[in-house]
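Researcher: We're teaching a course module on how sequence relates to structure. For the next exercise, students receive a sequence and then see the predicted structure as tokens, so they can try to spot secondary structure elements on their own. Here is the exercise chain.
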Amino acid sequence: MRRTMKRLPTILISALVLMMACVEPYSPNESKSAGGFLVIDGFLNGTDSTASVALTHAIALSENIPIPPEEGATVTVEPISGSSFTLSETAKGVYTANNLVYDETKAYRVHIETKGGLSYSSDYITLKRSPSLDSIVWHGTNTGLQFYVNGHDSFNQTTYYRYLFTETWEYRVTYVSDWRKNGDTPIFRDPIKDQVYTCWRSTDSQDVLTYSTKKLSEDIVSMFPIRFIPKGSRMVSRLYSMILQQRAISQDEYEYWELIKKTTENLGGLFDPLPAQVLGNVHNDNDPNEQVFGYFTGGYIKEQRIFLREADLPENLHYVDPYDFVCETRVIPYDQPQQSGIDVLLSTIGIPPTLWLVGTQNCSDCTTLGGDNVKPSFWPQ
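Model: And here is the predicted structure for the students to work with:
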């Protein structure tokens, strides 16, 4: 018997894409604007005494527009008893607060009043303490690097874990540029502030990384795989760093993220079963039927950072894939620097100079490859 193809509603897929940027699902035939479907990502960090809530709106995959933030909202965090505190909008749709004092014995919820007059509240949550984050380790294989995490709870009380990480890597381009242009006027680069030979780039983890020890005899996370970097990646061509965050989460949150994981894994399959709708713990106060996506949570986290140098890699991984673009240089008259166009001035030729050596952008300016030319504060000297 021929199976009937089932598809996720466009809005549901779009909301999941907002939370799982690494997923590239197919686009269903139906096209519908998400309109007022709110997406929330909120966390109360007891370790550094902060709160952060990001509010956006789901969009249909057919809508080729930036993800719309929910600006101008009033966002407050309310304990089950006592005084609430208000978050400030520090970026479009991002609401934060610092120097907070949390009480582990109290439950908290977030309350949102949108600029349009809609009211939303989360379920009450408690801030769980993360147990020991023991180590981050890596193993080299024939195809790349596999990273693992180890942790444990000596009191067997955690059971459910979630991991997030930010990775940062240093990379260089092919050519060194000693000059930049201000309009058409060449200016010698400041070797520290203006250099574009070495850059650093950071990205956040995209996969759902949850783990449960419920079926184990001990509350131990042992060699849980969290990241794979394929052989040849420029991420490990010089110096690579990962800062990993371990969170202790509730069973409800664990089940939420497991459903997110299963749903996003099924987005690309033509004959996959239709997953349940992935709704979080935030609700419209006046319309219980409105779908609200995302999750509000919090806790006391554990973090650990590691560095990995190219020299640390096994011999078989001392290989970097070639660029997928061509690196070229050319020369132009010294008195006509405007002929460089979008290319980058590298150096002068001749004494006195008679020519400019110029190079293509991606090979001469590391910032064009998505990085920043300012060294991170935590980077080794």
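Model: If you want an answer key for the exercise: Residues 1-14, 21-34, 268-275 have pLDDT under 50 and may be disordered. The helical segments are 10-19, 251-266, 361-364.
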